[in-house]
Amino acid sequence: MSAATQATTEPIVRDVAAKGARVRFVEAGSGPPVVLLHDYLSSQIEWEEVVPRLARRFRVIAPDLPGFGESEKPPASRYAYGLDAFAESVADLVAAIGVGRISLCGHAMGGAVALTLAANHAHLVEKLVLASLLVFPTRPDPLVRVASTPLFGPLVFKQLYGRTLFRKHFRDRMAGASAFPEARIDYLFDLFNVPAAREAAYATMLALQDTRAIVASLSRVAAPTLVAWGRADRIAPVEQGRRLARELRGARFEVLDCGHSPAEERPEAFAEIVSRFFAGAKGG
Question: Which CATH number fits the domain that encloses residue 269?
Answer without folding.
Answer: 3.40.50.1820
